[in-house]
Amino acid sequence: xxxxxxxxxxxxxxxRRQINRNRLVFLDSAASSQKPxxxxxxxxxxxxxxxxxxxxxxxxxxxxxTEAYEGARVKVANFINAADPAEIINVRNATxxxxxxxxxxxxxxxxxGDRIVVTELEHHANLVPWQQLAKRKGADLAYIPVTDEGxxxxxxxxxxxxxxxxxxxxxxxxxxxxxxxxxxxKIAEMAHAAGAIVVMDAAQAVPHRSxxxxxLGADFLVFSGHKMCGPGVGVLWGRRDxxxxxxxxxxxxxxxxxxxxQESKWNELPYKFEAGTPxxxxxxxxxxxxxFLTEIGMDAIHEHEQEIVAYALERLxxxxxxxxxxxxxxxRGGLVSFWMDDVHPHDIAAILNEDGVCVRAGHHCAQPLxxxxxxxxxxxxxxxxxxxxxxxxxLVAALQKVVHLLGRR
Amino acid sequence: MSHDLxxxxxxxxxxxxxxxxxLENPDIDIxxxxxxxxxxxRLTARLDVEGKIAEVMFEGQGCVVSMAASSMFTGEAIGxxxxxxxxxxxxxxxxxxxxxxxxxxxxxxxxxxxxxxxQGLQDAGKM
Lengths: 409, 127
What we know:
By secondary structure, chain A is of the alpha/beta class.
């Protein structure tokens, strides 16, 4: 069923804003998404009516807050079909989730001479922590390369796995630059056969389509609430049996059962990994975001974005000055990165801003990927539930202004 | 386009920059980049017998602000001493660019050539 974009947009207060007397055409949800009133209300509700610290309180308010906080955890677990809410760890964002893994699982399981496999597609969040772990441990960091079309070169993976040294394969479920959707389940199959675990960066996937961790193949998966209409929190999901044997990341209150002078005992999952007072209202807000998106329907959202991105690719291909990065419409998620021969992405973004069109310019936290394509930067338009074909038309019209103003004379 | 930043003067410098290229046997030869957005320039300069900047050229790729500012800077820097360069800042560059108001995101771009010159002078032991 097609999305009723005007009705959806009406639920986001920010779309009342004008930029230079233009309506807001927000095409940067891949960086962070806008927030609907129900999410804002859920947080304000906690702060106004049910706020107290969670887990330890023995009065009504504390019980309400705890119920709301843990209730959100259950919502998130159901959203990705996790077997158990205890497998949902609340973190600050996807980046923190991966760091948590690297400092616990990574530290425990990666040793000198081991190999960590990443891809050329990776966002710095799923690259730099592994890179630094490899340095610390004297392990090898190897890359699955990207083809000129923007797809992963799957021929390379078996070669990397065959000597049995690989401990972990870290890969993106959707590229935040190329939109590429790698065959992650296939990757997981191959990695598991070779004795490696798989860590998936689902920051660009969970907000945009239905994800089922029972069938995806990941051992660990991260995503960010702020990219899915939620506030600034994130989630690390992990298989229970793996989480059970990992040491804690941060130490302090709430993650302990008992503390003696010289030793402590850790709390059970998920609390072992949630030290200190959590961002209570924000986690509740994430639960509200899950409700909001579930009501629209993840399959409907995915279908909608596929339609918009196909239309965008069609219209953008009409502009001879534009070079589009990444694969064709059937092989990609809802974003397009591009550059122009004679115009710097920074100027593209600045001129588009004049018309209320918000795109991102730079390397999008993927410098190695930009190096591979020999460009210093690109511009990126990303689509979400509040975008429609009219937004694509506005993008193209503004890009035509860019060509007119800055194109080769 | 009524926007300040993309007015005729800056666009002229962007499309037809002054002193574009590289000096042979320069006293100053420095490459800098702005990794945030991908601007990069190479600045070469010659000093006269009094140690003042006598000639400046630049080459590189970048946004309108970084390229136009660099082009203007090659003229602006002539006759200045290293000390005068050291004391130049954002206000001077904005004035050089005709009093344009630079947003936060554009400041680094505008300062690229000035920062290159400062770095180059430092590296050459002149500052």
